[in-house]
Specification:
Low-confidence stretches: 253-268
Strand content: 25-35%
CATH class of the largest domain: Alpha Beta
Number of helices: 5
CATH topology of the largest domain: Thiol Ester Dehydrase, Chain A
Helix content: 25-40%
Distance between the termini: 77 Å
Shape: elongated
CATH superfamily of the largest domain: Hotdog Thioesterase
CATH architecture of the largest domain: Roll
Structural class: alpha+beta
Radius of gyration: 24 Å
Number of strands: 15
Length: 268
Amino acid sequence: MPVETVMVIGDHYRELSHGKQLVTASELLARLVSTAPTGLRILVGQGLTESQLTELVRLVDRAGASVALCGPVTPPAVYGPSLGSAAIPALVGRIERIEPDRFVAPLRLDERLDVLDDERREGHLTALVVLEVARHMWVATTEKFLLLPDQRNTWVIGGVPQIRSAFHQHLFPFPARVECRLIERESQGLGQMLSVRVAIHQGGVLAAQVQTDLRLLPKAVAQRFEGLALRKALSRQLTVMDPTGQVAGTGELISPHIRPSVFKGVDR
């Protein structure tokens, strides 16, 4: 019996598919519903919605041995509890610790890609998508492996002092491996600083690297700092109003009912 192998990608990348070896989720699901293919092997790429993945698994199970998925379809990793929020699905799958300072996960882009990649309907993943994948990977890894149970109320803050990135090869909406390495960990007063590097490999080739420093602070401390910054920013906006009710030099209209005196005592 001849074997046919196809890769399925999300409908977001419909212009990239050509109807043979690379097909969209909608095309493949319609085929599995209307026909009974034999000898079909399916490799799951990126961009499928949760409902499409669920339906794909159901239809493959219904077809029996004549249709098979190549490789596991893993649920997404999550992040958010240490930020005081509900668990948020990450853009990577289940994270595994392979060494004390190395963590790996499969790339797992879903329909949220549309928001990050709204101008590109075909071709490689944009730099913005890669950076967001790296952020999800280092935050989810930090929460799951690098915080003690009593540190779950710690805020994870990135971008100190800068994000360094390197792009070596185009990344396409195909399976990929995401690795996070802890480079350095240092206690700093109220919190700690982590230096991490995320590397993305596709087809056995290094495609991109992103490195940054993460500052971990107790949530209450982070909120206090942000509150001070908010009051100062608001005060600056109000003190530069001109007599017409606009922010000087911007043309931005501020309600004439709001006056700086209302905010008497705000830090300046």
